[in-house]
UniProtKB/TrEMBL annotation:
It comes from the Bacteria. The chain crosses the membrane at residues 52-76, 83-101, 107-128, 149-176, 182-205. Keywords: Membrane, Transmembrane, Transmembrane helix. This is Paraquat-inducible membrane protein A. It comes from Paracoccus contaminans. InterPro entries: PqiA-like. The keyword Transmembrane helix applies. The lineage of its organism: Bacteria, Pseudomonadati, Pseudomonadota, Alphaproteobacteria, Rhodobacterales. The keyword Kinase does not apply.
Amino acid sequence: MIEAGHYDIETGAGLIACPRCDALHVEAELHAGEVARCVRCHSVLARPREGAFTQIVALSFTSMVLMVAAVFFPFLEISRMGLGNATSLFGVAMAFAHGWLMPLAVAVLAFIVGLPAIRSALLIYVLLPMRGGGSPASRAGEAFRLSELLRPWSMAEIFVIGTSVAMIKVAGLAHISLGPAFWAFCALILVSAASNVFTCSTTIWDTLEDRGAFTDGREVVPDLAAAAAARAAADPARTVAAPLGAGD
């Protein structure tokens, strides 16, 4: 751990890099409503919001409910000459669950359903205990790191775009009726976009560190002694000593 206002150039403790241009900045504690921007490209580095954790948790719960509706409710119905067939996303995946097409079914369920649901569950696990100044859950840092790794692989919006293109091509051959699952998927995309707006990974990491969660051992905290005591209380098995001479 390292005290706020200090930094160690060798380990990177106390420094934050711009995700767009890689410019290094000295990390500072921000209050709700303040914005930290890169001095070079003016990208937002951190933007803490009042009540953001509660909003992210609520949006994550909403995403999981919409995902269930999108998977099991009818997605669309195709009819021609009095004959029609309706299917759900789960039914589409199961249609490919035979023979050499099995990997396609696994990919559909994993990238479109599984990963977004897992990421929502991880965000709930990390942020729900910390609302209102609560202590983080056990291994919350590892859970949030995994949720950040899964973020680029959540492809629900790509699936909807691909489905829309396919429906435009099929519309001239048959009548297509959109089911509730399609609109649930569209709502899921909007909810996910709102969650990404409220989610500031830098702020979440800082909150985890300040409340004693183990991240990578280079935490910047306002008070070293208080942070060490909070970490010992939160997870005694993972307690580490503060590096000597850090920031000197």
